[in-house]
Design goal:
The chain is mainly alpha-helical. The chain has one domain (3-142). It is 69% helix and 3% strand. The protein has helices at residues 3-16, 20-36, 49-71, 77-88, 92-100, 109-116, 126-142; strands at residues 39-40, 121-122. It is globular. The structure holds zinc ion. Zinc ion binds next to helix 2. Zinc ion (ZN) binds at residues 31, 35, 90-91, 114.
């Protein structure tokens, strides 16, 4: 899923579960459930122009939703932010592998698992990401 979808999922979990350790743990685990669902997937080579554009767009959306939630005076914005980061954090392994120039053949068991669960990635999966993100955002606002 997009970083936006992961972050809003974590923020939603923090809205519903206000016990920090549990909320952070569930947010981290949510990453793998979300990645196993149909979602946006575009074949990009690490470091290419398309990837940089995508990261800029997705990162801008994460900041937009975070600022929107803060401006809407959500309760406990720090826990929402930490859970949002926890939910996005497993994708930092892709950055690590990309910066190291590692190929899929050299991935460890965790990254092979993370790659294997992405089998429902597709361009039309963007619709799932959009609906998922907007639903999570609206639920966070409604549950305040
Ligand atoms: Zn992932």
């Amino acid at each position: 899923m997009t970083a936006t979808s992961h972050a809003l999922t974590g923020a939603f979990i923090a809205t519903v579960i206000r016990q920090p350790i549990l909320a952070i743990s569930l947010s981290f685990l949510s990453h793998f459930i979300c990645d196993a669902l149909p979602h946006l997937g575009i074949k990009m080579k690490f470091g290419d122009r398309a990837m940089k554009w995508w990261l800029a767009i997705d990162g801008t959306l994460v900041v937009f939703f975070a600022v929107s939630l803060i401006m809407l005076n959500v309760e406990n914005p720090v826990l929402l932010a930490v859970c949002g980061f926890a939910a996005m954090s497993p994708d930092l392994f892709w950055l690590y592998h990309g910066l190291k120039g590692r190929s899929p053949e050299s991935y460890g068991p965790f990254t092979r698992f993370h790659a294997a669960i992405q089998k429902y990635e597709s361009v039309p999966g963007l619709a799932v990401d959009v609906i998922w993100s907007l639903s999570a955002f609206l639920l966070i606002v409604k549950l305040q």
